[in-house]
Amino acid sequence: MIYRRPADLDFALADCPRQERPGKVLLTTPDYFDVEYAINPHMEDQIGTVDKSEALRQWQAVRETYDALGLDVHTADGAAGLPDMTFCANQTLPYLDPQEGRRGVVLSRMRAEERREEVPYFAGFFSERGYDVRELSDQVDGSFEGMGDALWHPGRRLLWGGHGFRTAPAVHDALSEMLGVPVMLLELADEDFYHLDTCLCPLDEQTALVSPGAFSDNGNALIRQLFDNTIEVPAIEARESFACNAHCPDGEHVLIQRGCDVTIEQLEAGGFTPVELDTSEFLKAGGSVFCMKLMFW
Ligand code: ARG
Question: Could you confirm whether 201 is annotated as catalytic?
Fold first, then answer.
């Protein structure tokens, strides 16, 4: 089932089965990371400007942070000719099947031709490790960019789905059916916020970071209906510093781009522990912490 506005809801969050947080995190080495083309507005003036050694240092600091927080960190190697592959939130959507406890991923269909060859590497990574690797049916039209546009509600079997730039609404119908979960569908209309993970960041079962300007009235109302606490991020921090592309792996720590001062203050006031990281080289490609990793079970 797909839900677009609060009036559509025929259940409460507490009715959704509980789902443990994923404990594994996948990172993909940035050896070939660069801005070589522009498929989102953030990339437009950045072609050829990436400092590779600085990018590697920033990526290593992200990896060390996850290690220090006790997550089970896995790494895959980036591939030559695929400069965006390090953004490994986008090629799959991991899931945990509650009936049989099976773990799997749904493969993406990247919208941009330049990124399509990334997907088979992740299909290989997961199939080698015994995961179910599933494709969307041929009957379903349109592109899908994994956890860029499909976010699990922390602790519950419920998905937040973005559409408008990279993922087609029909894909969310298909995911809802395949995984047996309700999908809260949010339309994106501002190109700077081309993926849902650039404007909505679920932190724990009750709390999310939101950039309200990225959503319609229905979308904002739906978010407020299911999260008791929404922390509104200033537009400039969301747009320029990717404050909503943060990540809370454990309900406590929030990994976030350095310098999002208003957001950081609000996180602290809400009882979270911000961990500031510098992802400035990756911001040039239109990504920060959230899309530099993939959480899986
Ligand atoms: N350059 C990449 C793209 O435009 C960045 C992806 C960042 N990922 C994200 N989930 N926001 O596809």
Answer: no
88 given a catalytic annotation: no
Amino acid at the residue 287 = G
Sheet with 103-107, side-by-side order of all strands: 92-96, 103-107, 132-134
Instruction: Look at strands 159-163 and 150-152 and give their pairing.
Output: antiparallel
Report the distance separating Cα 17 and Cα 247, nearest Å.
Answer: 23
Mutate to test the pocket of ligand 1, among 27, 87, 113, 188 (most ligand atoms within 8 A of CB): 87
Determine the Cα–Cα distance for residues 135 and 138; give it in Å rounded to an integer: 9
Tell me phi and psi for residue 240, to 5 degrees.
-95, -30
Asked if the model's pLDDT at residue 12 lies above 90, the reply is: yes
Tens digit of each residue's pLDDT (9 = 90 or more) over 255-271: 999 999 999 999 999 99
Question: Are residues 36 and 46 in contact, defined by beta-carbon separation less than 8 angstroms?
Answer: no
The Å distance, Cα 110 to ligand 1 centre, comes to: 10
Model pLDDT, residue 154: 98
Q: What is the pLDDT of residues 27-70, one digit of tens each?
A: 999 999 999 999 999 999 999 999 999 999 999 999 999 999 99
Ligand 1 atom with the smallest distance to the CA of 287 is 7
Residues 238, 193: contact at Cβ < 8 Å?
yes
What the chain holds in terms of domains, given with CATH numbers, is 22-296 (3.75.10.10)
**Residue of 153, 163, 195, 253 with catalytic role:** 195
